[in-house]
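Quick one:
INPUT:
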Protein backbone atom coordinates (compact mmCIF):
# COMPACT_ATOMS: atom_id res chain seq x y z
CA UNK A 1 0.00 0.00 0.00
CA UNK A 2 1.33 3.45 -0.93
CA UNK A 3 1.19 6.00 1.88
CA UNK A 4 2.05 9.66 1.76
CA UNK A 5 5.47 10.15 0.20
CA UNK A 6 6.13 13.63 1.54
CA UNK A 7 5.80 14.15 5.26
CA UNK A 8 6.80 16.80 7.78
CA UNK A 9 9.58 16.61 10.33
CA UNK A 10 7.13 15.97 13.17
CA UNK A 11 6.07 12.76 11.40
CA UNK A 12 9.57 11.29 11.34
CA UNK A 13 9.42 7.48 11.02
CA UNK A 14 10.93 5.50 13.88
CA UNK A 15 12.98 3.20 11.68
CA UNK A 16 14.13 2.53 8.14
CA UNK A 17 16.16 -0.03 6.23
CA UNK A 18 18.06 2.83 4.58
CA UNK A 19 18.12 6.51 5.51
CA UNK A 20 19.38 9.12 3.06
CA UNK A 21 20.59 12.55 4.18
CA UNK A 22 20.05 15.08 1.40
CA UNK A 23 17.19 15.75 -1.01
CA UNK A 24 19.04 16.93 -4.09
CA UNK A 25 19.42 14.90 -7.29
CA UNK A 26 21.93 12.50 -5.69
CA UNK A 27 19.71 11.72 -2.71
CA UNK A 28 16.46 11.45 -4.66
CA UNK A 29 18.12 9.23 -7.28
CA UNK A 30 19.53 7.01 -4.53
CA UNK A 31 16.02 6.45 -3.13
CA UNK A 32 14.68 5.67 -6.61
CA UNK A 33 17.48 3.26 -7.51
CA UNK A 34 17.54 1.38 -4.19
CA UNK A 35 13.80 0.75 -4.24
CA UNK A 36 13.90 -0.18 -7.92
CA UNK A 37 16.65 -2.73 -7.28
CA UNK A 38 15.12 -4.04 -4.05
CA UNK A 39 11.36 -3.42 -3.95
CA UNK A 40 9.95 -3.20 -0.46
CA UNK A 41 13.07 -1.64 1.05
CA UNK A 42 11.94 0.89 3.66
CA UNK A 43 13.70 4.12 2.70
CA UNK A 44 13.54 7.44 4.50
CA UNK A 45 15.08 10.53 2.92
CA UNK A 46 15.75 13.57 5.11
CA UNK A 47 15.87 17.05 3.58
CA UNK A 48 16.52 20.12 5.71
CA UNK A 49 14.61 22.57 3.51
CA UNK A 50 10.93 22.60 2.68
CA UNK A 51 11.34 21.04 -0.77
CA UNK A 52 13.58 18.70 -2.69
CA UNK A 53 16.32 20.14 -4.89
CA UNK A 54 16.63 23.35 -2.88
CA UNK A 55 20.44 23.37 -2.71
CA UNK A 56 22.98 23.81 -5.48
CA UNK A 57 20.44 22.54 -8.02
CA UNK A 58 18.82 25.98 -7.93
CA UNK A 59 21.92 27.47 -9.58
CA UNK A 60 22.32 24.64 -12.09
CA UNK A 61 22.10 25.24 -15.83
CA UNK A 62 20.27 21.87 -15.89
CA UNK A 63 22.35 20.64 -18.81
CA UNK A 64 23.42 17.13 -19.78
CA UNK A 65 26.03 15.81 -22.21
CA UNK A 66 27.77 12.57 -23.12
CA UNK A 67 31.13 13.92 -24.35
CA UNK A 68 33.30 13.16 -21.33
CA UNK A 69 36.89 12.02 -21.95
CA UNK A 70 37.19 9.67 -18.94
CA UNK A 71 35.43 6.36 -19.72
CA UNK A 72 33.79 6.16 -16.28
CA UNK A 73 32.18 9.56 -16.77
CA UNK A 74 31.24 8.84 -20.38
CA UNK A 75 29.46 5.61 -19.38
CA UNK A 76 27.75 7.31 -16.45
CA UNK A 77 26.40 10.09 -18.63
CA UNK A 78 25.34 7.77 -21.45
CA UNK A 79 23.26 5.76 -18.99
CA UNK A 80 21.76 8.90 -17.48
CA UNK A 81 20.95 10.49 -20.84
CA UNK A 82 19.20 7.27 -21.83
CA UNK A 83 16.93 7.70 -18.80
CA UNK A 84 16.23 11.33 -19.69
CA UNK A 85 15.29 10.47 -23.26
CA UNK A 86 13.16 7.45 -22.32
CA UNK A 87 11.66 8.46 -18.97
CA UNK A 88 8.67 6.15 -19.20
CA UNK A 89 10.95 3.10 -18.98
CA UNK A 90 12.82 4.27 -15.89
CA UNK A 91 10.64 6.85 -14.17
CA UNK A 92 7.11 5.80 -15.01
CA UNK A 93 4.48 6.48 -17.63
CA UNK A 94 3.58 10.11 -18.28
CA UNK A 95 6.82 11.40 -16.76
CA UNK A 96 7.64 14.76 -18.35
CA UNK A 97 11.14 16.15 -17.85
CA UNK A 98 11.01 19.09 -20.25
CA UNK A 99 13.95 17.71 -22.25
CA UNK A 100 15.39 19.93 -24.99
CA UNK A 101 17.93 17.85 -26.91
CA UNK A 102 19.62 20.68 -28.81
CA UNK A 103 23.22 19.65 -28.33
CA UNK A 104 26.45 21.04 -26.92
CA UNK A 105 28.69 23.04 -29.23
CA UNK A 106 32.27 23.75 -28.14
CA UNK A 107 33.84 26.45 -30.28
CA UNK A 108 37.43 27.45 -31.10
CA UNK A 109 38.64 30.78 -32.44
CA UNK A 110 42.18 29.87 -33.55
CA UNK A 111 44.10 26.98 -35.07
CA UNK A 112 45.46 25.80 -31.73
CA UNK A 113 41.94 25.54 -30.35
CA UNK A 114 40.77 23.76 -33.50
CA UNK A 115 43.54 21.17 -33.16
CA UNK A 116 42.56 20.59 -29.54
CA UNK A 117 38.94 19.97 -30.51
CA UNK A 118 40.04 17.64 -33.31
CA UNK A 119 42.10 15.60 -30.83
CA UNK A 120 39.20 15.59 -28.37
CA UNK A 121 36.85 14.13 -30.95
CA UNK A 122 39.35 11.47 -32.01
CA UNK A 123 39.75 10.39 -28.40
CA UNK A 124 35.99 10.35 -27.83
CA UNK A 125 35.54 8.15 -30.91
CA UNK A 126 38.21 5.80 -29.54
CA UNK A 127 36.23 5.29 -26.31
CA UNK A 128 32.98 4.63 -28.17
CA UNK A 129 31.41 8.09 -28.47
CA UNK A 130 31.25 8.01 -32.26
CA UNK A 131 28.26 10.35 -32.35
CA UNK A 132 30.40 13.35 -31.32
CA UNK A 133 31.35 15.43 -34.39
CA UNK A 134 34.25 17.65 -35.36
CA UNK A 135 33.05 20.60 -37.44
CA UNK A 136 35.46 22.66 -39.53
CA UNK A 137 34.94 26.35 -40.24
CA UNK A 138 32.82 25.72 -43.30
CA UNK A 139 30.52 23.29 -41.54
CA UNK A 140 30.11 25.62 -38.56
CA UNK A 141 29.20 28.48 -40.90
CA UNK A 142 26.71 26.26 -42.75
CA UNK A 143 24.95 24.97 -39.62
CA UNK A 144 25.27 28.01 -37.37
CA UNK A 145 25.75 31.13 -39.50
CA UNK A 146 24.55 33.29 -36.61
CA UNK A 147 27.77 32.49 -34.67
CA UNK A 148 29.70 34.80 -36.97
CA UNK A 149 33.01 34.57 -38.81
CA UNK A 150 35.38 34.19 -35.87
CA UNK A 151 34.60 30.54 -35.11
CA UNK A 152 37.23 28.33 -36.77
CA UNK A 153 36.04 24.92 -35.57
CA UNK A 154 33.68 23.19 -33.17
CA UNK A 155 33.00 19.95 -31.36
CA UNK A 156 29.34 18.93 -31.32
CA UNK A 157 27.57 16.47 -29.02
CA UNK A 158 24.13 15.93 -30.61
CA UNK A 159 22.85 13.84 -27.67
CA UNK A 160 23.33 16.70 -25.22
CA UNK A 161 20.75 19.18 -24.05
CA UNK A 162 18.96 20.30 -20.93
CA UNK A 163 15.91 19.51 -18.86
CA UNK A 164 13.81 20.59 -15.89
CA UNK A 165 15.86 19.51 -12.87
CA UNK A 166 12.95 20.11 -10.49
CA UNK A 167 10.79 17.74 -12.55
CA UNK A 168 13.59 15.15 -12.58
CA UNK A 169 14.14 15.21 -8.82
CA UNK A 170 10.43 14.89 -8.10
CA UNK A 171 10.09 12.16 -10.73
CA UNK A 172 12.63 10.10 -8.78
CA UNK A 173 10.56 10.58 -5.65
CA UNK A 174 7.13 10.10 -7.17
CA UNK A 175 7.87 6.76 -8.79
CA UNK A 176 8.88 5.19 -5.46
CA UNK A 177 6.33 3.21 -3.48
CA UNK A 178 7.77 2.59 -0.03
CA UNK A 179 10.09 5.58 0.32
CA UNK A 180 9.22 8.50 2.59
CA UNK A 181 10.60 11.99 1.99
CA UNK A 182 10.74 14.01 5.20
CA UNK A 183 11.05 17.75 4.66
CA UNK A 184 12.25 20.42 7.08
CA UNK A 185 14.51 18.06 9.06
CA UNK A 186 17.47 19.87 10.59
CA UNK A 187 20.48 18.87 12.63
CA UNK A 188 20.89 15.36 11.20
CA UNK A 189 23.71 13.51 13.00
CA UNK A 190 24.71 9.91 12.42
CA UNK A 191 24.66 7.56 15.41
CA UNK A 192 27.15 4.67 15.54
CA UNK A 193 27.38 1.61 17.74
CA UNK A 194 30.24 -0.88 17.66
CA UNK A 195 31.67 0.43 14.39
CA UNK A 196 28.31 0.23 12.65
CA UNK A 197 25.61 2.68 11.71
CA UNK A 198 22.81 2.55 14.26
CA UNK A 199 20.64 5.49 13.29
CA UNK A 200 20.23 9.21 12.81
CA UNK A 201 19.46 11.81 15.46
CA UNK A 202 17.77 15.02 14.30
CA UNK A 203 16.25 18.09 15.89
CA UNK A 204 12.87 16.46 15.24
CA UNK A 205 13.63 13.03 16.69
CA UNK A 206 15.59 9.88 15.91
CA UNK A 207 15.48 7.10 13.33
CA UNK A 208 16.89 3.63 13.87
CA UNK A 209 18.55 2.36 10.70
CA UNK A 210 21.49 0.11 9.83
CA UNK A 211 22.33 2.03 6.64
CA UNK A 212 22.89 5.73 6.03
CA UNK A 213 23.66 7.42 2.71
CA UNK A 214 25.30 10.84 2.88
CA UNK A 215 24.11 12.78 -0.18
CA UNK A 216 24.16 16.19 1.45
CA UNK A 217 25.96 18.20 -1.22
CA UNK A 218 27.91 21.10 0.22
CA UNK A 219 27.02 19.97 3.75
CA UNK A 220 28.43 16.46 3.29
CA UNK A 221 31.62 17.12 5.21
CA UNK A 222 29.73 18.47 8.22
CA UNK A 223 27.37 15.48 8.22
CA UNK A 224 30.31 13.10 7.96
CA UNK A 225 31.95 14.65 11.00
CA UNK A 226 28.92 13.67 13.07
CA UNK A 227 30.02 10.08 12.42
CA UNK A 228 33.65 10.85 13.19
CA UNK A 229 34.82 10.74 9.58
CA UNK A 230 36.45 13.37 7.37
CA UNK A 231 35.03 13.19 3.86
CA UNK A 232 37.64 14.44 1.35
CA UNK A 233 35.59 17.11 -0.37
CA UNK A 234 35.65 20.85 -0.79
CA UNK A 235 32.94 23.29 -1.84
CA UNK A 236 33.50 25.89 -4.54
CA UNK A 237 31.00 28.68 -5.17
CA UNK A 238 29.71 28.93 -8.73
CA UNK A 239 27.43 31.54 -10.27
CA UNK A 240 24.92 31.63 -13.09
CA UNK A 241 22.37 34.12 -14.31
CA UNK A 242 19.27 34.11 -16.46
CA UNK A 243 17.96 36.95 -18.58
CA UNK A 244 14.48 37.15 -20.12
CA UNK A 245 15.93 38.66 -23.31
CA UNK A 246 18.09 37.13 -26.06
CA UNK A 247 19.45 38.86 -29.16
CA UNK A 248 17.52 38.06 -32.34
CA UNK A 249 20.35 36.22 -34.09
CA UNK A 250 20.60 33.68 -31.22
CA UNK A 251 17.77 31.26 -32.09
CA UNK A 252 15.53 29.38 -29.68
CA UNK A 253 16.66 26.04 -31.15
CA UNK A 254 20.38 26.77 -30.68
CA UNK A 255 22.66 24.34 -28.85
CA UNK A 256 24.37 25.18 -25.60
CA UNK A 257 27.47 27.13 -26.62
CA UNK A 258 30.74 26.44 -24.78
CA UNK A 259 33.14 29.18 -25.78
CA UNK A 260 36.93 28.98 -25.72
CA UNK A 261 39.02 29.35 -22.57
CA UNK A 262 38.10 30.46 -19.96
CA UNK A 263 34.93 28.69 -21.17
CA UNK A 264 31.95 30.99 -20.64
CA UNK A 265 28.82 29.16 -21.73
CA UNK A 266 25.29 30.09 -22.69
CA UNK A 267 22.13 28.46 -23.95
CA UNK A 268 18.60 29.55 -24.82
CA UNK A 269 16.17 29.63 -21.90
CA UNK A 270 12.41 29.59 -22.31
CA UNK A 271 11.18 31.34 -25.44
CA UNK A 272 13.10 34.60 -25.43
CA UNK A 273 15.74 34.33 -22.70
CA UNK A 274 19.17 32.90 -22.08
CA UNK A 275 21.08 31.37 -19.18
CA UNK A 276 24.80 31.95 -18.68
CA UNK A 277 27.54 30.30 -16.65
CA UNK A 278 31.26 30.68 -16.24
CA UNK A 279 33.57 28.93 -13.80
CA UNK A 280 35.67 31.96 -13.10
CA UNK A 281 37.81 32.95 -10.13
CA UNK A 282 38.38 29.60 -8.43
CA UNK A 283 39.80 31.25 -5.33
CA UNK A 284 37.22 30.02 -2.81
CA UNK A 285 37.72 26.41 -1.76
CA UNK A 286 35.80 25.77 1.41
CA UNK A 287 35.83 22.82 3.78
CA UNK A 288 32.62 24.19 5.28
CA UNK A 289 30.30 26.13 2.96
CA UNK A 290 29.05 29.55 3.90
CA UNK A 291 25.32 30.09 3.81
CA UNK A 292 23.58 31.51 2.00
CA UNK A 293 25.61 30.71 -1.10
CA UNK A 294 24.33 33.97 -2.59
CA UNK A 295 26.85 35.78 -0.39
CA UNK A 296 29.34 34.85 -3.13
CA UNK A 297 27.32 36.59 -5.83
CA UNK A 298 29.65 39.05 -7.53
CA UNK A 299 27.61 41.93 -8.92
CA UNK A 300 30.12 42.19 -11.75
CA UNK A 301 29.63 38.59 -12.87
CA UNK A 302 26.85 39.13 -15.47
CA UNK A 303 28.64 42.09 -17.05
CA UNK A 304 31.98 40.28 -17.10
CA UNK A 305 30.48 37.16 -18.66
CA UNK A 306 28.73 39.12 -21.39
CA UNK A 307 31.82 41.24 -22.06
CA UNK A 308 33.95 38.11 -22.41
CA UNK A 309 31.53 36.49 -24.85
CA UNK A 310 31.20 39.72 -26.82
CA UNK A 311 34.98 39.98 -27.12
CA UNK A 312 35.37 36.35 -28.18
CA UNK A 313 32.62 36.50 -30.81
CA UNK A 314 33.55 40.02 -31.98
CA UNK A 315 30.32 41.74 -31.01
CA UNK A 316 30.68 45.52 -30.94
CA UNK A 317 28.88 47.79 -28.47
CA UNK A 318 25.12 47.38 -28.59
CA UNK A 319 25.23 44.23 -30.73
CA UNK A 320 24.87 40.55 -29.78
CA UNK A 321 26.28 39.77 -26.34
CA UNK A 322 27.27 43.44 -26.05
CA UNK A 323 23.63 44.54 -26.12
CA UNK A 324 22.74 46.15 -22.75
CA UNK A 325 19.27 44.57 -22.83
CA UNK A 326 20.90 41.36 -21.57
CA UNK A 327 21.42 43.06 -18.20
CA UNK A 328 17.76 43.94 -17.63
CA UNK A 329 15.73 41.98 -15.10
CA UNK A 330 18.35 39.28 -14.65
CA UNK A 331 18.12 36.50 -12.06
CA UNK A 332 21.58 36.04 -10.53
CA UNK A 333 22.16 32.84 -8.56
CA UNK A 334 24.95 31.11 -6.69
CA UNK A 335 25.44 27.55 -5.55
CA UNK A 336 28.29 25.20 -4.76
CA UNK A 337 30.22 22.71 -6.80
CA UNK A 338 31.42 20.01 -4.42
CA UNK A 339 34.62 18.30 -5.53
CA UNK A 340 36.73 15.46 -4.20
CA UNK A 341 39.94 16.77 -2.63
CA UNK A 342 41.86 13.48 -2.66
CA UNK A 343 42.66 13.20 -6.39
CA UNK A 344 46.32 13.23 -7.30
CA UNK A 345 48.90 11.96 -9.73
CA UNK A 346 52.21 10.55 -8.58
CA UNK A 347 55.30 12.19 -10.05
CA UNK A 348 58.46 10.18 -10.89
CA UNK A 349 60.05 11.24 -7.59
CA UNK A 350 57.05 9.94 -5.65
CA UNK A 351 55.55 13.37 -5.00
CA UNK A 352 51.78 13.53 -5.05
CA UNK A 353 50.48 16.23 -7.39
CA UNK A 354 46.83 17.15 -6.65
CA UNK A 355 44.51 17.76 -9.58
CA UNK A 356 40.90 18.87 -10.06
CA UNK A 357 38.86 15.72 -10.51
CA UNK A 358 35.49 15.49 -12.24
CA UNK A 359 34.64 12.19 -10.53
CA UNK A 360 32.05 11.91 -7.79
CA UNK A 361 32.65 9.74 -4.73
CA UNK A 362 30.06 6.95 -4.73
CA UNK A 363 31.18 4.29 -2.30
CA UNK A 364 30.94 2.66 1.10
CA UNK A 365 32.98 4.30 3.84
CA UNK A 366 35.64 1.83 5.04
CA UNK A 367 35.62 1.01 8.73
CA UNK A 368 32.01 2.05 9.40
CA UNK A 369 29.64 -0.70 8.34
CA UNK A 370 26.47 0.67 6.77
CA UNK A 371 27.78 4.14 5.86
CA UNK A 372 27.71 5.19 2.20
CA UNK A 373 28.57 8.30 0.21
CA UNK A 374 27.16 9.90 -2.92
CA UNK A 375 29.00 13.21 -2.89
CA UNK A 376 31.33 15.47 -4.90
CA UNK A 377 29.28 15.53 -8.09
CA UNK A 378 31.17 18.64 -9.26
CA UNK A 379 28.19 20.56 -10.57
CA UNK A 380 26.93 17.72 -12.78
CA UNK A 381 24.78 16.03 -10.15
CA UNK A 382 21.67 16.58 -12.25
CA UNK A 383 23.04 15.07 -15.45
CA UNK A 384 24.65 12.09 -13.69
CA UNK A 385 21.85 11.32 -11.24
CA UNK A 386 20.24 8.17 -12.73
CA UNK A 387 23.56 6.35 -13.06
CA UNK A 388 24.85 7.72 -9.75
CA UNK A 389 21.76 6.38 -8.02
CA UNK A 390 22.25 2.93 -9.55
CA UNK A 391 25.92 2.83 -8.54
CA UNK A 392 25.00 3.79 -4.99
CA UNK A 393 22.22 1.19 -4.88
CA UNK A 394 24.69 -1.53 -5.85
CA UNK A 395 26.96 -0.45 -3.01
CA UNK A 396 24.17 -0.37 -0.42
CA UNK A 397 22.74 -3.72 -1.51
CA UNK A 398 26.12 -5.44 -1.81
CA UNK A 399 25.70 -6.20 -5.49
CA UNK A 400 28.00 -5.98 -8.49
CA UNK A 401 28.35 -2.58 -10.09
CA UNK A 402 26.20 -2.03 -13.21
CA UNK A 403 29.45 -1.49 -15.14
CA UNK A 404 32.95 -2.42 -13.89
CA UNK A 405 34.30 0.98 -14.97
CA UNK A 406 32.18 2.56 -12.23
CA UNK A 407 34.79 1.39 -9.74
CA UNK A 408 36.60 4.61 -10.70
CA UNK A 409 34.11 6.49 -8.51
CA UNK A 410 35.54 4.75 -5.46
CA UNK A 411 36.64 6.76 -2.44
CA UNK A 412 40.25 5.66 -2.60
CA UNK A 413 40.85 5.89 -6.36
CA UNK A 414 43.23 8.86 -6.55
CA UNK A 415 43.73 9.03 -10.31
CA UNK A 416 41.86 8.20 -13.49
CA UNK A 417 43.22 9.06 -16.92
CA UNK A 418 41.44 11.95 -18.67
CA UNK A 419 39.70 12.89 -15.41
CA UNK A 420 41.40 16.24 -14.82
CA UNK A 421 39.91 19.55 -15.86
CA UNK A 422 36.45 20.87 -16.43
CA UNK A 423 34.55 21.52 -19.65
CA UNK A 424 35.97 18.99 -22.11
Amino acid sequence: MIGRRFIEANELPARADVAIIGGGPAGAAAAWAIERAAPGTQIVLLEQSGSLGAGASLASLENFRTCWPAPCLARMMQRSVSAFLNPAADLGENTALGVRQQGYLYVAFDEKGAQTLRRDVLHLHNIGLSHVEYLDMGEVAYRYPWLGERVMAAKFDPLAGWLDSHALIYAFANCTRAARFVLGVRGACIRLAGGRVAGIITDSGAIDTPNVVIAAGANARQVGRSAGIEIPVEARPRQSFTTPWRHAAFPEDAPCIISAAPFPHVRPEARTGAIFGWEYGGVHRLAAPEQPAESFNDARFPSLTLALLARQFGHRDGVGFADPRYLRDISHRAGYYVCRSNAYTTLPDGTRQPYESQRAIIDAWPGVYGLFLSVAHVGHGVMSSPAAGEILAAKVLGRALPDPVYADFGLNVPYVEYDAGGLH
